[in-house]
């Protein structure tokens, strides 16, 4: 069994926001994970790491998350500035997951014996809404077709997808208006993956500030 931790939308700010100590809250979360989730193989933060993008805020986020004993992977949300984020969470194309501690980073693909994870960058510059980029859709297709040992039944390993903007409608009107603009493109890529023998075991998102689970497009 593989365990991992999904964090989203910490909105770290160096000053209290609406009276909330967001730095202290993230520190308490990290302490909880380190104490209660010791068997987790990795942690993913699906965007909005900081509330107002600055090098100082990202360094603070990397320092706090870097206290965890397992690898931490991050991707950008609509509040993030990817270039500033990459200064503290280096952008890498692929990570081959290994046990132990590693500095936080921002990979596009995480590969492990039991799974492939694809981190889709949905941030759209200057907008609260999101868009899956063509290069990420191509990367997803490449991951789903690149496993050399797959059988006629397909690749038995799990396929995990992480992204900031959810591809489904939530029923929260204001958030749906700032949702993912091209969910059909993602659906098409996942249908192609399924036809090739890779079915997504889960799509993990943020943005809504709500806990929701369910099935999307099968």
List the helices and strands and how they pair.
Layout: E1 5-7, H1 22-36, E2 43-46, H2 55-65, E3 72-75, H3 82-88, E4 91-96, E5 106-112, E6 115-119, H4 134-145, E7 158-162, H5 173-177, H6 183-195, E8 200-204
Parallel strand pairs: 1-2, 2-3, 4-5, 6-7, 7-8
Antiparallel strand pairs: 5-6
Helix pairs in contact: 1-2, 2-3, 4-6
Short description:
This protein is of the alpha/beta class and 218 residues long.
Q: Which key phrases capture this entry?
A:
three-stranded parallel β-sheet, 18% strand, 6 helices, alpha/beta, five-stranded mixed β-sheet, 218 residues
Structural write-up:
- Helix 1 (22-36) runs parallel beside helix 2, helix 2 (55-65) crosses helix 3 (82-88) and helix 4 packs parallel to helix 6.
- Strand 5 (106-112) and strand 6 (115-119) form a beta hairpin.
- The chain has 6 helices and 8 strands, in the order βαβαβαβββαβααβ.
- The protein is globular.
- It has helices at residues 22-36, 55-65, 82-88, 134-145, 173-177, 183-195; strands at 5-7, 43-46, 72-75, 91-96, 106-112, 115-119, 158-162, 200-204.
- 29% of the residues lie in helices and 18% in strands.
- With 218 residues, it is of the alpha/beta class.
